Structures are given as structure tokens and as C-alpha cells.
Amino acid sequence: MTKDELLVTLKNIVKPYIQDEEAFINLTENTDFINDLKINSANLVDVVLDVEDEFDIEIDNDAMEKMLSVKAAIDIITTKLNEK
Amino acid sequence: MKKRVVITGLGVVAPNGVGISAFTNAIKNGVSGIQFYTDLKELGFSCCIGGTPQIPETLPSNYLTSLQLRNFNSSGIMYGCIAGIDAWKDAGLMISNDTVDFDSGTIFGTGTSGVEKFREAIYKLDDNKVKRLGSTVVAQTMASGISAYLGGILGLGNQVTTNSSACSTGTEAILLGYDRITSGKAKRMLVGSCSDHGPYLWGGFDAMRVMTYKHNEKPTKGSRPMSQTASGFVPGSGAGALVLESLESALERGATIYAEVLGGAINSGGQRNGGTMTAPNSQAVERCIKEAVDDAKISSKEIDLINGHLTATSKDAQEIQSWVNALELEGVDFPYIQSLKSMVGHCLAAAGSIESISAILQLKEEFIFPTINCEDIHPEIMRMIDPHKFSNKLISKKLNIVAKASFGFGDVNACVIFKRY
To answer: For residues B124 and B128, what is the distance between their CA atoms, to the nearest angstrom?
Structure first.
């Protein structure tokens, strides 16, 4: 999976949880989940569950704590996919 | 001087009608909301009939956001949100996205919350998947889930809480909200109650054999309050919500006033003198009714109609005996008496609020709804009161005062008095 494909998949995953439509439309690698997309912090665990389901990977607590931006998410998903 | 309290908004989600106009139409016409449920049969229930509100598939999205509906599995909270938001809008109140209304709160009761969500969570947890529960298990299964949802949706800044007193929950919520307004602590209180539906809530009652198992073939005949052939209650579910408001606030806003809450009483029989976890202490029931009449500053003769608890178990005659003793009225002097449960079953924690709404609608629209399935009144009841005091036909009548009581497990009682405004 290329980085662009990954970005598109991730964008679809976060879509139900975002509360800032404009930041979502302009989503880039530097977009922050909480500060930009205004995702409720409680919903970050739901994003992680959806990522686990989509990519068939397991995200541990340490990785989850770091998954606060698009870039961090892509890095973590890529690492986990490479470990498979 | 105690503030006067009036009802300015109503919302209802009942097995025989969702929304005030559908519900009013159903109760006027004696429409039963009781059906046969295949899942109860497959699970080996003795009683396979029940009452569940018919919610169109697209309706929830008018009340909850798509994010709130994600992984949502709590029927009681859904019913409560629909009824609560409807009542708020019916009262002509606004929903602001950026201000908090510190003058308005909610006391919205339930017995259990999100029992199906809880089941889902337990299965995952026992499968060592606690990490996969998601973020909403707590909000959907905590007892105060319903008041928390409503408080957030409506932006309520006064007290936001959930009461729980078994089958008296809904009536208790009304009186708790009433107290908060009479004491000047709030201008408006959204009060009511909700109950989940389905086997995981109803199973415990089926095990106790307190639900009827004799009417699986004829569901709409199953709920038979006051009848000689009553053989247990039929389980129901749903929600009822009322906006209570100080009279001065209602007049200031020019709000429509449905009726006035004159007063009421809440007590317990202490599980003594005949009272147990599951049976009422009749002395306490009588005391509760008398205290409600005193609190409302009326005489018992002024009561036109009693909206009873009357569940269709063997206790109905005992309840009527308590009314006779408490009001010191019998025969032709006894008021009209009715049971909404004949049409919707026993909606458990939601019963008191749904039934109170039926009482208020009769005051406002001048009718007495039929109590269906009571063509064979129990002889013990016939000995106490005149046969014209219950009707299985609609009666058109201007009413002034209605008394509503609910009783629950734990030997708890609540009685409220409503008056035409």
C-alpha cells in the first residue's frame, strides 16, 4: 500500500469522528486529530479500533498514546504492516 | 410561599404510539401495543408477549448525531432521548449550541441502562477483548446515561441526574423535579423516565412467573388490569418526558400549559407489615395517597379520576382497597379508575411517566380513555366500587383533578396530583 493510498484509507476511518469539516477537507500529513479535526479525545480509542479492523493489525497502548496526528498514525500503521 | 408548578411540554414513546398525537389517538381508541415476540419464544420464555414502541428506522437520526448512533445499542436511552427532546421542543424551548441554561435541569429515571450494550460488552470482555469495547460502553450503561445524554443535547446547567425506584421511578421523577421548582432551585425541570425493551430486561420477571403466560396466542388480550382473569403483567418499554416549569416562568414565556402539578407524596413501606421486596405494605400505600391529597390541599371528593398502578396481577384488588381506605370513598362516591397498562403493558421504570402523560392528556383534552380487557371485573373490586367507575369505552368528560400513583419493588410508593389549568 502506498502512502497516498494509506492516507485515503485513514481519511475514511476518521471521517465519522471529525468535528471540523474544513480541516478534514484540507487534511494533510501534518493534520492533528484533536487540535485540527476537533475529534473528541474519547473517540481516539474508536479511531484506533477502526484502524485495527481495517489493516488487521494490533495497536498496543504505547503506540496508541502516540497516535495523535495523521503523520504519527501513518508511521505506526506502516511499522505494524511491515512487522506482519 | 411555594412556587406553583405547571406542565408546559410533553413527549412520549409508548408501545401503542410514538409522539403525543399518535399516543393520544391510540389511548382514545383503546389501541393495544402488545405483540407476540418470536425471540422470547425461542429463548424459552413463559410469557412471549410484550410492548415495544415502533420506531421508524430513520427516526433516531432526527435526535442523535451519526457519531452518537455509532455502536449505539441502548433502547432505553434512545426512547428517553426521543421523548425528552420532543417534550423540550413541545414546550417551545430552544436548543442552543453554545450557551448553558443554568435555570433548567433534568431528573430522568431508569431501572437499568443499556442492558443490550452491557451484554455486548460482557461477551467481548470474556473473550479477552477489553481493549475493543470502544468509547461509549460507560455512557450507554451507566444508570445516569439518559440524563447525561439529554443534559448534553439540551445544554442543561441545573441539576442533571437519574433517579431509580423500580416501577415508581417515573412518578418519583415528576415529584423530585416538582420539589426542585417549588423550592426555587430551578425554573424548569425536564422530568421523566425510560426503560429498555427485550429479553435481557424482562427475563428476571419471567423467571419469577409474575408475567402472564396464558395469552401468548392472543397478545392484545394479555394485559388485563382489574379483570377476574388477570394472570400477571405483560412487560412493556418506552419513555415519557414532561417539562415542568414554575407558573411565573411559563406565563412570562407565554407557554402552553397542559396542567398543573398540585403536589404529591413519596414513601416506602419499609418491607414491614405485609410489605416485602416485591409486595406492598398497604398501610404505607394508603399513607402515601393521603399525604399526596393533603399536600395538594384538596379533599378526596374532588378527585375525578384515578390513573392507577394496576398491573394485572392478583394485587389489583388490594390496590383498589388501598385507594378506598385512603380516600374514604367507595361505591358510587368513588372516582373513575383506569389503567393504561391494559394497552401498553407494564413499562416498568417508564410506567410512571408514560401513565402520567396519559393522565395529563385526559385533563387537557377532556376525556377518559377506555381500560381495555376489563369486561370481567374482579368480584372483589365489584364489591368495593360502582361498576360505572371503570369503562372499556371512551368517555367524553371534563375533568378537574386526576390522581396518579405508582408502586415498585423495594416496597416504594409515589402519588402525584394533577389539576386542569
So the answer is: 7
Query: pLDDT tens, B56-69?
Result: 999 999 999 999 99
Provide the residue count of chain B. Answer: 421
**ipTM metric:** 0.89
Q: Are B288 and B266 in contact (CB under 8 A)?
A: yes
Angle at the Cα of B190 from the Cα atoms of B188 and B196, rounded to 5 degrees: 170
Q: How many C-beta atoms surround the C-beta of residue B123 within 10 A? A: 10
Residue B402, Cα to own-chain centre: how many angstroms? Answer: 15
- Helical axes A70-83 vs A3-14, angle rounded to 10°: 120
Query: Which of B 111-170 lie inside 8 A of A, CB atoms?
Result: 132, 134-135
Give the residue among B395, B389, B358 at the shortest CA–CA distance from B26.
B358
Task: Please name the amino acid found at residue B76.
Answer: G
CB contact under 8 A, A16 and B71: no
B132·A49 Cβ contact <8 A = yes
C-alpha cell at B76: 432505553
**pLDDT tens-digit readout, B289-307:** 999 999 999 999 999 999 9
Task: Please identify which residue in the block is written with the cell numbers 443490550.
Answer: B116
The average confidence (pLDDT) of chain B is: 97
Residue A8 has pLDDT above 90, yes or no: yes
User: What cell numbers appear for A2 in the block?
Assistant: 502506498
Is B66 in Cβ contact with A49 (below 8 Å)?
no
Q: Which residue has the cell 406492598?
A: B280
CA distances, B147 to each of B47, B108, B117, B216, B247 (Å): 31, 6, 17, 35, 24
Question: What's the CA gap between B331 and B337, in Å, rounded?
Answer: 12
Tell me the DSSP string of B258-314. -EEEEEEEEEE-TT-TT--SSS--HHHHHHHHHHHHHHTT--GGG--EEE----SST
Tell me if residue B329 falls in helix, strand or coil: coil
How far apart are alpha carbons A26 and A33 in whole angstroms?
13
A84 pLDDT tier (thresholds 50, 70, 90): confident
Q: Output the nine-digit C-alpha cell for B209.
A: 412467573
Measured CA angle at B242 (ends B374, B373), to 5 deg? 10
Amino acid letter at B291?
E
C-alpha grid cell, residue A62: 504505547
- Contacts with A51 from chain B: Cβ below 8 Å: none
Full DSSP string of B212-242: --S-SSSGGGS--TTBTT--SB-B--EEEEE
Q: Which parts of chain B sit beneath pLDDT 70?
A: none
- Residue B329 class from Cβ within 10 Å (0-12 exposed, 13-18 middle, 19+ buried)? middle
